[in-house]
């Protein structure tokens, strides 16, 4: 999951782009801004109920696509960014203004936001963020190559799982189950620095192999991803 910074605290978003209202409430609480205010679950059942329904109607989406709860380490209440802004407004004028500014920069793709987060992070966290960003670049390059070489539908997931099996020891669903993580977890957000590096290396090697051999289609490209990740795992002496 991606993490924003609100009142100096991380606020996660999940793979569906929903924002953690739980993290927002914790950030406001730490800054003494939310005294007497409802936590996300109570707010959603009471004061926020009408607005959540309104957002769903306007977007023609069911509630489960704009508001969700999950358990586990990365669990909590997640909601569409419009709902997140409404919740921030309910909690505090100060929090509302800061969240508005952060989301304006986030939605516009302001890369300096990530740089500011890195500046405030501990050295170990800053190193992880650097690896995560590098991994995003490698992932985007591989995805573009896969699309250009005829990969479609579940073929993208098959290619990703071919890499995960060598680096993490199983497909995404298997790793999430083994670690007790929600199925929607972005595994890259729970990888350590070494795993991020190996995943990025695998994706770059797979991209090059597919292009040089001009491999096409779901199966051929998934095989290349498997071959690349296996080679990287052997090189790093990894036994998932």
Automatic annotation (TrEMBL):
* Residues in coiled coil: none
* Origin: domain of life: Bacteria
Record-linked InterPro entries: KilA/APSES_HTH, KilA_N
Pfam families hit by this protein: KilA-N
Q: Where is the KilA-N domain?
A: 1-106
SMART domains the record matches: KilA-N
Give the protein name, as stated in the record: KilA-N domain-containing protein
The scientific name of the source species is Acidovorax facilis
